[in-house]
Design brief:
Number of helices: 18
Radius of gyration: 22 Å
CATH architecture of the largest domain: Up-down Bundle
Number of strands: 0
Largest sheet: none
CATH superfamily of the largest domain: MFS general substrate transporter like domains
Helix content: over 70%
Strand content: under 5%
Order of helices and strands: HHHHHHHHHHHHHHHHHH
Number of domains: 2
Amino acid sequence: MPSTAPTPTNRGHWLTLVVVGLAQLMVVLDATVVNVALPSAQADLGFSDGQRQWIITAYSLAFGSLLLLGGRLSDLMGRKRTFIIGLIGFALASALGGAAGTFELLVAARALQGVFGALLAPTALAVLTTTFTVPKERARAFGVFGAIAGAGGAVGLLLGGILTEALDWRWVLYINVFIAGFALVGALRYIPRIARSGPRPRLDVPGTVLVSGGLFGLVYGFSHAESDGWGSPLTWGMLAAAVVLLVAFVLWQRRGAHPLLPLSIVLDRNRGAAYLSVMVAGAGMFGVFLFVTYYLQTTLEYSPIQTGLSFLPMIGMLVLAAQLGTNIFVPRFGPKVLVPIGMTLGVIGMIWLTFLGSSSTYAASILPPLMVMGFAMGTIMPASMQTATLGVDRRFAGVASATVNTSQQVGGSIGTALLNTLAATAAADYLAGHPAATPDVAVDAALASYATAYWWGAGFFAVGAVISALLFRRRGNGLSLSHAPADEERTGAGVG
């Protein structure tokens, strides 16, 4: 007997999408929602500027390093059970952080959020993958989900600004309790519990240790480079250790009896292209959020709420592009056409941002490139995410979904560290060439640093355009988004 619950109705499918969308939004926005609230939290708890980064890093380290484990646990424990555990844990960790009276407790709560986020994010995508098997429904669902994944960072900036100014910095964490509560009620009602058939698979413990350690070293190394620079021995030590551990992980997966991540998942040409596309988009997108936020708040002196509102048109274009792409263009042209177009739009948007100056106006100079960037992300993310999980055996839907989230997280970490370093170097070079320490020189140095970051971000998207154009298969050659997931996904032994 394959299932202990009836197959959800069409209405049930869409309510499932609402539930997993809430969970995904909560996890993604928590990567940025705290940023705007940091000055208020620092004034309240009295921690130093050097300690401040750990409020962000604690979350990203736990989240990034445990994603593949979280995805595999959802395969082994069951999607519904893992999803509920993740929601409850995330809500409790958020409540703990909101009530924190010390810096140490806040950091611990943020790390716990990352742990349970690593359970939630891949499980949410896996639920979507195994729920929507009809091609037309699947396209629409991934359009919504991809839009949430792409827009979550901007929503976090807006929500962080509103909650910090209107209420208190602690509400950027407390709000998760309410979001998780709504999602939990929906999960209990609308996510089906599917029974396992066949023997219980085992967890690949050596593989888990290797990949978790490797991802930890990778995220920590780039985070450390962002704060302490590339000259730090710890930065290179962590990155070198990460490379060694990840190579060992790949070698182990080739011979392990119960691999954590079967290499066939990532070596498939379409899925590999999708993972790389998500990574490149993550690297470029974090650059937009970071440096446009700096520009609006420090150069144009926008308030946190004004900064968040400035990103709303970008979110609107992202949602529009996601729906047009997944419902009309991807079924007709496939990711081989759509993703490179999105990457090219990313190049255009980034180059456009390099023209921003100290007297630029929002409507004429900031709004147009942000809308282009939104359309670019809405074109890239849903098509890539849909392709990244298409045709995967149901038994490995969780870990395949986790690889999508890992790609985005690693891309964001790499992009933030590299762009920050390049921007800081550009600012220092500008100041060295203009020794007069006037306010105008300082402003121009900042603008030069932002422009450098945007040019390199354009380079990221240009590389992504070439990679996606070369790697994605043509429609009809291999996996196609116009077909339902592989039979093995629908009938294979697994846990729902």
